[in-house]
Structures are given as C-alpha cells and as structure tokens.
Design a protein that fits this description.
The complex is a heterodimer of chains A (about 500) and B (about 375). By secondary structure, chain A is of the alpha/beta class. Helix content of chain A is about 35%, strand content about 25%. Chain A is built from 18 helices and 22 strands. Chain B has about 375 residues and is mainly alpha-helical. Chain B has 2 domains: about 80 residues; about 260 residues, ABC transporter involved in vitamin B12 uptake, BtuC (Orthogonal Bundle), CATH 1.10.3470. Chain B contains 15 helices and 2 strands. Chain B has a two-stranded antiparallel sheet with strand order 1-2. In chain B, strand 1 and strand 2 form a beta hairpin. In chain B, helix 3 packs across helix 13, helix 12 packs parallel to helix 14 and helix 13 runs antiparallel to helix 14. The longest helix of chain B has about 35 residues. The N and C termini of chain B lie close together (about 10 Å). Classes of the chains: A alpha/beta (about 500), B mainly alpha (about 375). Chains A and B meet through helix 11, helix 12, strand 18 and helix 14 of A and helix 8, helix 9, helix 14 and helix 15 of B. Chain B: Keywords: Cell membrane, Membrane, Transmembrane, Transmembrane helix.
C-alpha cells in the first residue's frame, strides 16, 4: 500500500464551550480527488484550518507523505506542499494576474521575466488560459478561481484544499473546474474538495469522507454510494427513541401560512406557494438540504424580506405587518445565525434582553428603556436557563456559543410568545446546552406554544417534531410522521427522491 | 471594583494620547528650529480673560458640531456634511432673523427653527439618496459641502447687502439680539446665552440615545444592522431619521454666535467647525459627556495657539498637528482598551461559577 498524502489521526479541537472536532480520522491517497462532505457546522472548516496551519489541534497527529508534522502557521503548511483555495477569493482587483501571483512569493522567481514565464508555464500545463498581464478586475469568477489555484501551484503546492469551490460557479463553469481538477490529479497532485453538494461530490471524487457533529462518520465508496445514502450519513441515521411524551397538539391553528411566495431581486423564485399550518402545542419540523428555502421561509414569516401570500397568527392577518409588529404579536425567534441576527455582541447581556423585545413592558415602558426591568429579567434568564456568565453586565461576545444560545432561547421564550420560530436552535452548541435547549422547547410546547423548527439535524427533527415537512427548491414536498419515518424516506424526499433513484 | 478599573482605563487612554501628542508636537517644533519649552509654557499658562470667554463660546459651537457628527456615528452613518449643513442653516437663519417677520424673542425662536429645518433638509438629501439609490452618505455629504459653499456664496453675492468690500445679510434687529453674560470687563467680551443650546442638545442626546427605545434602535443598528432588522427596526427609516437629526443639530451650530455677536451672515461667519466636530466626536467616543470635554480641549488649544506666533514665533498651525495626533492616538488607544476589556471578560467568563450564585458573590 502506498503512503497516504495526508493522514489525520484522532484530531481534536475545542473552543470555549464547543467541541469543534473530535476523533477525526482522514486518509487521503496521493493523486486523488478526495471529497470532505458535511452540513454547515459539522466541523469541516475547523478541520481545514488545522490542516492549513491556521489553528493548532488540541490532540491528534497530522502526517504528510508519511512524515509526522506540526504546523504553527500557514507558512509551515505551504512549506510541506499544502495549498488552500478559499471560497472568498483573496485577490487584488487593481493588480495583474502576475502581480497577484507573485505577491507574497517574490522570493521564488522574483517579479520579472522569470516569474512571468513560470506563470505562463503553469497556466499552459493545466489549460487555465490565464494571461499574466491581464488586470484581475477584468476576469470573471471562474477565471479568478483558476488564478487562486495557480497561486497555490506557483508556491509549489502538491496537496490542494478547495473550500466549496463550486459555490460561486454556474454549472458550465463547474464542469470546466472539474476538468481542471482532473488535469491536476493526472499530474500527480492531491486534491481535498470540500462541499455539501452531493451531485458534484459524486461526479468528481475518488474517495469521500463524511463529517457530522465534529467527527468523521464514514468513508463511503463513491462508485457505489447513492446520493440518498450520503444525505443520510450527513444528517445522521441513528434514530433517537421516539418521543415518549404525549402529544400536546391541539385543534387550534396558531400559524397559518397560505401561498407564501418569495421572488428575489434577480427574479428567481425562492419560495413557491408554501402552505403551512401549525397548531397550538405542535412542533412542525422543516427538513431539507440547506439552501432550499428554509432561511427564506423564516425571513418571510417575519417580514424581514418581502413576500406574497398570507400569514395569519391566531386570528390576526399579519400579511401587511412589519417585522416589529409581527414579533410583538407573540412570535419568538431563535435565529439561524445568532451573531448576525440574535445578539448585539458588544453590548452587555441586559441590553441584549431588549433586542427584538422593545415592545415588552419589561424592556421598554412608554418609549423609555426599562433598565431595572430588563436587568431583573436578564438575571432571571441567566438563572433559569443556566447561562454561564459572571453577570448580566458581561458583553455578549465574551460568552461561549452555547451560553449565548441559551440566553437567546430564554429571551425568546419570555413574554409568552404564541409561536416560536427556531432555526437550527442547537447548531454549534455543546451537548449539554443542546439537551437543555431541547427540554425547554418541549416544555414550552406543553404549555401550548406552536413551534416552527428548522434543522439540518435529523435527530433533532425526529426527537422534537410532531410533524415533519420536507422543503425542496422552495416548495413543501412531503409530510412525515416522525414516529414512523425512516431516514431513507426523508433522504429521498430531501434530495428529490424518485427522479434520481 | 471592575467598574472602577474600567473607568480608570477609560480616562487613562485620552490622557496618554494628549501627553503623547504634546511630546510629538514639541519634537516637531524643536526640529524645525522653534522652542519646545516656549510652546509648552504658553500652552499651559492661564489664558487671559478675553481668551477664557472665547474658549467658553467656541466650546459650545464645537460641541454642537460634534454632537451632530456623533448621532450619525452611533449608527455607523458617516455624516461628513455637517460643514455644509450648518453653513446652509446659518445663512437661512440669518436671513430669516434679519427679515424680522416676527418681533423680539419670537424672531429668535423662528430663526432657530428655520436653521434646524434647513440643516435637516440638507442632510436629508444625502439620506434620500442613500435609502432610495444606495448612494454612500460619505460621498454625497462631501459633495453637498461643496454645493453649500457655492450656493451660499452665490446667494450672498446676488442678494446680500453691500457692506464695504463684501456683502452680507441684513443685520438682526436689536430687539432680537440676545445679550450675553459678561464675566469680566467689557473688553473681554460676552459669553453667548445661546451657548446653552449646546447644554440642552447634550442632555437630550444622552437621554434619547441611552434611555429611549428610539435610541436603543439607533445604537442597535449601529452595532449590527442585521440584528437590528431582525429585531424589527426599519433600517431605511432609521437612516433617514438619524440623518435628519444630525443635520438638525448641525443647523444650530452657528446660532449662538449669530445672535450673540455676529448679528448677520457675512465675513463674520466661522467656517470649518463641521470638520472640527468630526474629530471631537471621535475623541469623545461619540458619548455626550466625553465629547463635552473633548470640545473644551479643542477650544482651549485653538485659543491658546493664537498666542504662539506673537509670543514665541511659532506657527499657529502646529496646534493642528497636536490635535491630529491626539485623535489618531486616542483611536488606537480606545481599540487597545476595547480588546483588553474583552480579553479580561473572557477570562472572567471562563472562571464563572454556576449561575445561581448571587451577583454579590460573583463580583466579590
């Protein structure tokens, strides 16, 4: 057996309150395209950063071409022949191709004729079609990506990491990229391809490793695995014991969405006639591969983005209401991205109690901030929801992700909401906080709350939901009973099932 | 305990910045052949009565200008156009007051309202461009500054009354001139009564920003627009309202001077305050009370520097080096303090006991 180009053993990386990677094992054979797949938050990016020397693992070993190495900085990784192509290009628009390539690598071949010849040679060898003297601002996205690859090749990379390289490309460009990748492979380069687009992974990869919840969970053979099986691996196949607590679903409809349609600024249909009803005491889970309209469904219901269609809460038609009025009517919102939508990171916790709740008596009285009330209620949340913090004057930024999330959950369950929209409520939080958040959602449901749960985690969906709806390309395409559903059913519905099976 | 430490750090940063900038300026003076010791001794000598009055008056103008800039800064709007806004407002206010449509004090109030409205409207143009067309307010307000200078220049040259070599607006009738307070002899001049506008504006600024829902929304938008939108803030409306407020405050900047001593818009108009205000707002971290100290400091340095040429042969402009370095140094110092505090808090969080412990135990 040949030596692996890259071998990771038992990699572990912890951040305060979160285990980003644990027990990660990855073996990449030389001269192959190896795909690393997993949902957002599965730990792919942390692993990449470890392999590229941006972060140091807390435990585990990295072996490159049979030699155990330790990286302190990316330059150590580059010295070992590892290159990385980031999803967001790092190019200077007002410089030429050549200047961008030599920038920071002037010592290799200088900046003149020798460097120009080298850039030409690489471009020709792999059919990149890049002219060294063209300004980068005149290049399209695909050409810029080839330039990024050229940059790492110029620096002598034999092992190239590509972070979701197809995210920015149109289909024809994707095919061209894959042709380039095959060209690289034939000339002996090793490629690590990170993605969560399963079609692409199956089209290009010689080997696949799946990550879930911070660890590697399998190495399916790309020649025999189906898209459905991959999806199941990504979201987790171990079924939790079906929720034993009794159903609390009532007959009263709390949220009623009719024909909700969203067209984005480019004229694309993002949501297509969504009909959805949630009863009091009911948790409805939305399952789907990311990017099929989950985020937009939430933002549409909250009027954060314009939609057509009707949204009713209880007896009120909210369709014409702005975000604040909708939230004030009793909609709690646990956002998918707590840093962007849920917190003021540089404000103390007690001020964060007011964020999004400026209509509650406890936060604002007749237009004036109720400092005492907000502080007192923040203390209550910290106490009741086990938020680990020295006090309510601590900046939100200083808290770990799990504790930030517990505070948000506590805040959103305050003020007696009648509907809770929970988008990935336990993403990126540690196991302890996860269990606590699940318990709180269950308890609120028992008290009559209607819950819209968006999650990429099948365990979470099945364990919490009374009903699961599957979203695909902006439409609800299937309804399942979590007590009887199998991961195969869900996987099939999530990926458009029959058409490819 | 933590609170005391935080206050001490917050005070240390600007003080060190001042010391540092004085040292650099001294060095510059010494290198260019001047006497640094003269510079320091003049700067720190007690100002004459006349200068004390000027310092008080200038502080109020600079403070208003800094508040106008700070309102925008607090929600990440860079209103660079205070300069143009207060120029337009000063002209309009002087024109209105000079026309004497209303008697006595009513004329003063009317002129103030006109000035606020014109300042707000001038800023509102930038606001409209931003919310409807996405034009950066930095660009539009800078351009509006140039337009304001041209427009007021044209209007005064076309419609102004001739006074010697120059033209000006009609003088305010005596019944509408606002007498000041004369702390020393007559030659030292008067402290303008309308300087109190600065106090009122400062207190209102603090109240509105820190104590009201509107202020909370404004600060939230400044910290994280995405979080503010998710919390139900209408960011376009917020942008518009904030720019109107900023321009409205800008409209007041020159009013104490107009009613206190200038009495007409012409050669007496004091330009440049809009830019001073931006630096002072930065120095005062966009907070009401610190800005007041920063305005006082700038007014003090400006007035004291007038003596440099006469008494030590040092160019007045060196004081701008001092002021520039203070602002630069303080911006860096604040960022260092911010990072230090965050690290300190993260350490505290790491050692935090399980919740349930009382706050007293935690802070003890």
């Amino acid at each position: 057996m040949t030596t692996s180009a890259v071998e990771l053993r038992g990699i572990e990386k912890r951040f305060p309150g979160v285990i980003a990677n644990h027990d990660v094992n990855l073996q990449i054979a030389p001269g192959t395209v190896h795909a690393l797949v997993g949902e957002n938050g599965a730990g792919k990016s942390t692993l990449m950063k470890i392999l590229y020397g941006v972060q140091k693992p807390d435990a585990g070993t990295i072996t490159i071409n049979g030699e155990t190495v330790e990286f302190s900085t990316p330059s150590d990784a580059i010295a070992q022949g590892i290159g990385m192509v980031f999803q967001h290009f790092m190019l200077a628009d007002n410089l030429t191709v050549l200047e961008n390539v030599v920038l920071g690598a002037e010592k290799l071949h200088g900046t003149g004729a020798k460097a120009r010849a080298e850039v030409r040679a690489i471009s020709d060898r792999f059919g990149f079609g890049l002219d060294p003297d063209v300004l980068v601002e005149s290049l399209g996205v695909a050409a810029r990506q080839r330039l990024e690859i050229l940059k790492v090749l110029y620096r002598g990379a034999k092992i190239i990491i590509l972070d979701e390289p197809t995210a920015v490309l149109v289909p024809q460009e994707v095919d061209a990229l894959f042709a380039n990748l095959n060209g690289l492979k034939e000339q002996g380069h090793t490629l690590l391809f990170i993605s969560h687009k399963l079609d692409e992974v199956l089209a290009v990869a010689d080997a696949i490793t799946v990550m879930r919840r911070g660890t590697t969970v399998g190495d399916p053979d790309p020649s025999s695995v189906t898209k459905r099986q991959l999806a199941e691996l990504m979201v987790g196949t171990e079924l939790p014991s079906p929720a034993t607590d009794e159903s609390t679903v009532t007959d009263v409809v709390q949220l009623s969405v009719e024909q909700l349609t969203m067209i984005d600024e480019f004229g694309r249909t993002i949501l297509d006639g969504i009909d959805l009803q949630i009863h009091r005491g009911e948790v409805v889970g939305i399952a789907g591969v990311e990017g099929n309209g989950q985020t937009e469904l939430v933002e549409g219901i909250l009027a954060m983005r314009p939609t057509q269609g009707t949204v009713r809460l209880g007896g009120d038609d909210m369709s014409g209401w702005a975000t604040r009025k909708r939230r004030a009517a009793g909609v709690g919102y646990i956002p998918e991205d707590r840093h962007r939508h849920g917190l003021l990171l540089d404000s103390p916790l007690w001020e964060n109690r007011i964020l999004g709740h400026a209509y509650e008596e406890v936060a604002v009285k007749r237009g004036w901030i109720n400092r005492g009330g907000a502080r007192q209620d923040s203390e209550r949340i910290v106490d009741q929801y086990d938020v680990r913090t020295p006090g309510i004057d601590t900046m939100a930024r200083a808290l770990s992700g799990g504790n930030q999330q517990k505070f948000i959950v506590g805040r959103e369950l305050s003020g007696e909401p009648s509907l809770l929209i929970a988008a990935h409520p336990t993403r990126g939080v540690d196991v302890g906080a996860q269990a606590a958040i699940w318990d709180q959602i269950k308890e609120a449901r028992r008290a009559g709350l209607a819950v819209l749960l968006i999650s990429a985690d099948l365990d979470e969906l099945i364990g919490l939901s009374d009903r699961i709806e599957v979203i695909l390309r902006g439409r609800l395409v299937g309804t399942f009973d979590p007590r009887t559903v199998t991961p195969q059913d869900l996987g099939e519905a999530m990926t458009g099932g029959q058409e490819e099976a | 305990m933590t609170r005391l430490r935080n206050i001490a750090i917050a005070l240390a940063a600007p003080l060190l910045a001042i010391v540092f900038s004085l040292a650099v300026t001294s060095l510059v003076i010494q290198i260019s052949g001047g006497s640094a010791s003269d510079f320091i001794s003049i700067l720190f000598s007690w100002p004459a009565d006349r200068l004390l009055v000027n310092i008080a008056n200038q502080t109020s103008l600079i403070y208003l200008s800094a508040l106008a800039a700070a309102v925008g800064f607090r929600m990440n709007l860079f209103n660079i156009g205070v300069e143009g806004q207060y120029r337009m407002a000063a002209y309009a206010g002087a024109l209105f007051a000079g026309a004497a449509f209303l008697p006595g004090a009513l004329n003063v109030i009317g002129a103030l309202l006109v000035a606020v409205a014109v300042g707000a409207a001038w800023a509102g143009i930038a606001g409209l461009l931003r919310v409807t067309r996405g034009v950066s307010e930095v660009i539009s307000t800078i351009m509006l500054n140039a337009i304001a200078i041209t427009i007021t220049g044209y209007l005064i040259n076309t419609y102004g009354i001739k006074a010697g070599d120059s033209r000006r607006t009609e003088a305010i009738p005596e019944s509408s001139q606002v007498p000041g307070w004369q702390p020393f002899d007559k030659a030292a001049g008067e402290v303008w009564t309308l300087g109190l506008l600065a106090v009122i504006a400062g207190v209102s600024f603090w109240l509105v920003l820190n104590k009201t829902r509107f202020g909370f929304d404004l600060r939230a938008t400044g910290q994280s627009e995405s979080a503010a939108i998710a919390s139900g803030v209408n960011s376009k409306k917020m942008t518009m309202v904030t720019l109107l407020i900023s321009g409205g405050i800008a409209g007041l900047i020159w009013m104490p001077s107009l009613f206190g001593s200038a009495h007409y818009y012409g050669t007496t108009f004091q330009a440049g305050l809009g830019f001073t205000g931006i630096a002072v707002a930065l120095l005062g971290r966009n907070r009401a009370l610190p800005i007041a100290f920063a305005a006082l400091l700038f007014a003090y340095l400006n007035e004291q520097s007038n003596r440099l040429t006469i008494e030590a042969g040092i160019s007045v402009e060196v004081i701008q080096i001092t002021q520039g370095i203070i602002v630069l140094a303080v911006v860096i110092a604040y960022e260092l303090v911010r990072r230090y505090r965050l690290r300190a808090e993260e350490r505290e969080v790491a050692q935090a006991p399980r919740p349930g412990a009382t706050t007293e135990e935690v802070s003890a």
